[in-house]
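Fold this sequence, please.
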Amino acid sequence: MSASAGLYVHLPWCTRKCPYCDFNSYEARSGIPEELYVDVLLADLGVELARSGPLVLSSIFFGGGTPSLFGGPAIERLLSGIARQARFAADIEITLEANPGSAESARFSAYRAAGVNRLSLGIQSFNDERLNALGRVHQASEAYAAIEFARRAGFDNFNLDLMFGLPGAQVGDALDDLQAAIDAAPTHLSWYQLTLEQGTAFARNPPQLPSHDQICDDYDAGLELLAAAGFEQYEISAYARSGRKARHNLNYWQFGDYLGIGAGAHGKINVAGKIYRRAKIRHPERYMKSVLAGEPTVVEERIHAARVVSEFMLNALRLKEGFSLGDFSRTTGVPVGAPVVAAPLARAVQLNWLETHGDRVTPTANGFRFLNDLQLLFIDDGESQSTDSAGVI
């Protein structure tokens, strides 16, 4: 029986690089080579499947960049090509990230016809001043229009991506944004704090952000607002209607396997009980040339015990329901009694950051509030020396 896995497809082009963005994305100043890139992605998938063995795809996620810059025919040809190489689960979730610009929204019907059954709309804010401060290329009116386009196209499952702690935000702005998102009746919300990531324009020239106290107050009030509206928080920044959790992302957080194709895409696979991380060449032109020439495009690392524990915890501790000790041992191959697990687990319980109920380990409210500190307990100082690697980047 074939193993189950997700597939991440990276489409790296965007209209304009946002000043807060640290993703592997590139402004499409001279157009996008759609046809060629689809050919390359399908060839890349063949290489990945040769490494992983036969798989049943439980989810596909088109991320970027801005995937909605690709036309419907390109997405249809890509999905058809993927289906020829790998089996799809009967209930496969296929998500495409989209910006709410008018040109992209006009493509939603074509995406739905191609087989995409879930959209993730990069709204960020419904306030034009905040959008301008973020360097976004759309306005609030286009965000509302995109949501309506999604519904008309037949998407009954869609996520809205929203941030708080934005430059220039006043008291009440974050909750106004959140209420507008709730009123739009999505099935899923990603609501998270803006962070100034290293290497971004915002990190080089930091904007004026709300105070720490205001951000904390907004977060606490937002949790109450979301709960009252029927959204379950199941991950640190993910909220879903009943039965609408993001299956692709859950697979990441539960340390499942996934393939990555596209410039800069990452994957994680278990081969004969050994866990490997795979990362592709980042620059699109170099990536395409290497794939077409049959040259190596990937760095592969085998992840050993201490690093496996760290990576598992970095993901699983983001989940409100936590994880079971049995699943931990089965997924990582590391016994729960090993010092690299038992000692930080006991310390986290002592600090009231984790609690145990039989086999299950869950973050407390304090654990969620101090998530970074909680995760750091499980990071081994010498883990960077515990990998085998080969390939090119």
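The CA atoms of residues 328 and 334 lie 8 Å apart. The two ends are 33 Å apart (CA to CA).
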